[in-house]
Amino acid sequence: MPTFANRVLPFGTTIFSEINTLAAQHGAINLGQGRPDFDAPVNIIEEAVKALQSGQHNQYPPGIGAPEFRRGIANHASKVYGLDVDPDRGVVATAGATEAIFASILGLVDPGDEVIVIEPYFDSYVPNLLMAGATPVFVPLHPPEWTLDPDELKAAFSPRTRAVLWNSPQNPTGRVFSVEEMTVLANLCIEHDVLVISDEVYEHLVFEPARHIPIASLPGMFERTVTASSLGKSYSVTGWKVGWVYGPPELVAGVMRAHQFVTFAVHHPSQLAGAYALAQPGTYYEELQAMYTVKRDLMMEALTGAGIKAKTPEGTYFVMGDFSDIFDGDDLAFTQHLITEIGVACIPPSPFYSDEHRHLVGKMARFAFCKNDDTLRQAGERMKKLLK
Ligand code: GLN
To answer: Is the pLDDT of residue 388 over 80?
Structure first.
């Protein structure tokens, strides 16, 4: 009897689970998965507790999401980005941005369609496309500045292109793309009548002077973009797994058709707390950014002290380090060495690439700095041993 379906045969265990297991086995400081080691703001947790105890929110919410949450998402998009989102027809609440992206692909992309994927990409994108029967077409960013080559991007478009999977601020490079770079992409999408599925989960993790621009806010783009985001990163609740998609009602209807038969609906009490979180004043995000700026600088110090070169991230809580000056093997060998000999875990970035372009990060590793300042300092101390 065959065990697995053919569709999942090529998929291994995600690199995040693998590294978590290895890090735990060796007692390594885990700078692998983007999982904060500090708790969420107390007032946001209190809202979740209130929702749990209200007697009103422990049964199914509407499949598209609790009305309070959908209004929160639409108001946030209007207040922060000036976007006009319809809370009743233009929003779907999802099980994190990961489901948001998968439901968007299932609801909007046909088998045989081509979808442009920028490399390095978050690891679920390609398995999502393959499960939907779509064909990924890869366009790599160019290190060390992680720039897009406009000609390579243009060459990736064909009559079969249905969508582009876009991610800014970008995991794992820490790039926040400029309006000029995004305009090149937007013009190609308009010219070829292509959709954008935009992953913006790091929208509030941006460092001065970078500024996050939703691709949906560019002229002519709202009507062809579905934007995925979540509570996880902005409010340090990655374990809640509550996210959303917003966009024009005609596209969101497709996402909803898939979502209703994937999860139907998502955790109701968290959506109430989400509505509260999304209404935080601007000072909340300023404090979040100030906190992460300190962490980013500690991370950069730790890398420099270990002889690892890196472009300072403009956003996200990740940095890609180049270890070519201090270690001979590839990214997998370096990760193994760092965990077992130095006691620090990172993520090898080659799983974020197609076979063709994997060599671009053969000497790189991703470090997550969503950790207590002391954890980052300790990691820095341990990593000094790399120079010996
Ligand atoms: N987004 C997180 C990261 O890149 C991981 C999420 C996951 O494990 N699926 O580290």
So the answer is: no
